[in-house]
What does this fold into?
Amino acid sequence: MAAGYDRGRRLRPEDLDAWMAAARPFLPGPGGRILDLGAGTGRFSVALADATGAAVVACEPSAAMRAVCRTSCPGIPIVGAKAEAAPFRERAFDAVWASQVIHHVDDLAAFARSVRRMLKPGGQLLLRGGFGPPEALALFRYFPEAWAPSPLPEVVEVLATTGIIVYSRAKVEQTLAGSPAELVDRVGARSLSNLAGLPDALFQKGLRMLRQHEREGRIPHRIVERLDLVVFGLG
It folds into this structure.
């Protein structure tokens, strides 16, 4: 996944700008500290630093992902750890950014305690992901077995037990692919964890259908998706 991550998950500059515009009201400015939790290859780490002027720390459990992140995010500290056990001191961060991380969390209660411990008073947790009906996702029709119902209700409930409550929720539109051929190429990279976790037979079945639809002209020229930004704060 690390080798093909940027090929399959790259965000256009205008999409990064849209995410930063949505997130900026909840992030600190210069002098603040942001944790990019589950940073992957660091595609948001630099954007967060550039958009805010705050100090950003990347935290990622995968050694392969961290190796790519070190190249793509010069000057940003990178720590190897899981979200449930991030090794930072109490009240270390003004904000925690977690992009498409929550479905990787094995212990939500430990995740909630970890975030609660790391946030300063008045701090924010920003979760980015697809938290609507999975049927609304552009790739669901090809890989229906890859997506489970949204975990957000359980996440909200567990976070609330530690005093972390929902502040706001917004939809942000981004380009999944600029053409049918680009969509096929991105899916073929199999860098989405949902697709990587599928049995090979199911993945190949969905990919064949996608390629057939490309040949038949049944895929829009520009494929967009609308993901969620859910912001939590200390109650």
